[in-house]
Amino acid sequence: MDTALPATLRATAPKPVLFGAGDLTIEDVVAIARRRVPVALDPAPEVRRRIELGVALLDSLVARDGEVYGVTTGYGDSCTTRIPPDLVAVLSLHLSRFHGCGLGAILGREQARAVMAARLASLSLGHSGVRPELLQRLVDLLNLDVLPLIPEEGSVGASGDLTPLSYVAALLVGERDALVGDEVRPAAEVLAGLGLAPLTLRPKEGLAVMNGTAVMTGLACEAFVRAEYLTRLCTRMTAMASIALGGNPGHFDERLFAVKPHPGQAEVAAWIRDDLARAGAVGSTRLQDRYSIRCAPHVVGVLRDSLPWLRRFIETELNSANDNPIIDGEEGRVLHGGHFYGGHIAFAMDSLKTCVANLADLMDRQMALLVDTRMNNGLPSGLTGATGARAAINHGFKAVQIGMSAWTAEALKLTMPASVFSRSTECHNQDKVSMGTIAARDCLRVLQLTEQVAAAHLLAVTQAVELRLRAGQAAAGWAESPAAALAGEVRTLSPFLVEDRPLEAELRAAVAAIQAAAWPLYA
Fold first, then answer.
1. How confident is the model at residue 88 (pLDDT cuts 50, 70, 90)?
2. Rounded to an integer, what distance in angstroms lies between the CA atom of residue 447 and that of residue 115?
3. Which of the residues 178, 286, 380, 470 has an alpha carbon 20 to 30 A from that of 125?
4. Residue 383 in contact with residue 396, Cβ under 8 Å?
5. CA 427 to each of CA 18, 73, 77, 124: distance values in angstroms, whole numbers, following the listed order
């Protein structure tokens, strides 16, 4: 089988992402997760040679009855237990089976694909002792979109993501269930229907698949791109809020930010400054706006300035051999260590969720200004579009603002760092663990809540600017501005609010658009 893509797609498919060829990026993983590109193993002879050297070294050690953790010994605290030669071949299968105890929600389709891509990236480096045939099977399953059902709970992030990754191993051997299209079917049945024989795991292959950081790393890739988009959206909505409130454009002056030159902060200020200039905003005579407008570059800028080191942490982990032991086929050595420890991802996700939650708090405070007649510079209460006698019975965005505060409070509550809650497990063998997967899951939840805040704020700030337009108070160049283009996109999802109506469906549509990064924002 080549790339396992349907024949009708092979001619038009984009160039595949190659595994084993070099470093992958966060964007590569996200493109694979969203099924925008196929995947393939690098066909270079050197890549295959490196992979096969590790397999040959393991085979020779097993034949000589050498001692290799997880190959001729038990796992974890059982590493002192020698495995009889006639049972070595089935040890990997037992590892996958006794870890089949995950609970909680099932990872989404894109998340499962990201996990598989992250594991394939590590294994294809050739330091894990797995056969090219196993790597090719992961490639085939990704291209066919046949996925394991991975429960999100059960990993402490060292010794790797053992329990969730056991569901990847189970799919390879034809056990448990698989997701195909919208159907959940027995894995054995799915593989048989595709003409794929279940793999028989060789020594160490079960451990190699499971003993790594692929779950937390795959989720971290998704979190990164969603957070990056939120910085752009939050910035544009700040410009729109400043226009709606009649804010002071001087707060974003280039000379002001030259004397506190954090690059990301200055970038955000420049984006707002450009949005206001292109909209022709002149502002008011108010000397200083409230902090949620005036200090927005300083809030969003923290995340913008964190993105480079967050990328470095995530992509270094993505392109690492992160299981144990490491198989050095070139030098003929087996190196026992702790590369399954997900501390870098744990810290990155704990940090990212704090930055993201601050965006939720910023937008919630901006919303409070917009709906309050004491602070919104003449806009109607609740941003209702109703006029005359009917204004008394219409409440506009009053309940939406309450919802925003609820989502913000929950996001802020989840910023407690998961990485400090290490627990000693597995008979004190795993006595210091990273909690990286919990940190990544927390981060995704904070992102979901913040995207809900952003969706609500986007509808409200669009309403606020339109109220200015209808009152003849709009910025002179508004109609041709990038901010107006975004407002126009919003209006395709949510019409101007005059009479009160349920807004849930419109909010959900806006959340979906944000998560899909549907609107281009800044170069």
1. confident
2. 19
3. 178
4. yes
5. 40, 16, 6, 32
**Which of 212, 238, 260 marks a domain boundary?**
212
248 lies in which domain range? 219-322+332-515
- Residue 363 and residue 453 in contact, taking contact as beta carbons nearer than 8 Å: yes
| pLDDT digits 0-9 by tens, 341-391 | 999 999 999 999 999 999 999 999 999 999 999 999 999 999 999 999 999
Do 497 and 384 touch, CB atoms closer than 8 A? yes
pLDDT band at residue 9 using 50, 70 and 90 as cut-offs: very low
CA gap 359, 354 in Å, rounded: 9
Decide the pairing of beta strands 333-335 and 326-328.
Answer: antiparallel
Shared domain for 252 and 368, answered yes or no, is yes
522 inside domain: no
The structure tokens listed for 359 are 């965006």
Cα(44)–Cα(54) distance, integer angstroms: 17
Q: Is 328 helix (H, G, I), strand (E, B) or coil?
A: strand
Report the alpha-carbon distance of residue 521 to residue 92 in Å, rounded.
48
Confidence at residue 7, expressed as pLDDT on a 0 to 100 scale: 54
CATH of the domain at 415: 1.20.200.10
Is the omega angle on the peptide bond into residue 325 within 30 degrees of 0, that is, cis? Answer: yes
- Total domains in the fold of the chain: 2
Residue with tokens 């003409």: 195
Distances (CA, A) of 126 to 4, 94, 129, 194, 295: 23, 24, 7, 27, 49
| 341: annotated active-site residue | no
Residue-wise pLDDT for 243-263, tens only, equals 999 999 999 999 999 999 999
Same domain as 228, residue 114: no
- 8 vs 319, higher pLDDT: 319
pLDDT band at 285 (very low <50, low <70, confident <90, very high): low
Of 506, 471, 455, nearest in space to 229 by CA: 455
Whether 113 and 35 have beta carbons less than 8 Å apart is answered as yes
Residues 153 and 301 both lie in one domain: no
374: burial class by Cβ within 10 Å (0-12, 13-18, 19+)? Answer: exposed
Of 69, 75, 341, 522, the active-site residue reads 69
pLDDT grade, residue 99 (50/70/90)? very high
For 311-320, what is the mean pLDDT? Answer: 98
Looking at the predicted structure, is the pLDDT value of residue 79 above 70?
Answer: no
DSSP labels, 232-245: HHHHHHHHHHHHHH
**Helices and strands, counts by H and E, the chain:** 19, 9
Structure tokens at 292: 């949620």
Cβ-contact 319, 371 below 8 angstroms: no
Q: What is the pLDDT of residues 408-457, one digit of tens each?
A: 999 999 999 999 988 878 777 777 889 999 999 999 999 999 999 999 99
Structure tokens at 38: 């196929």
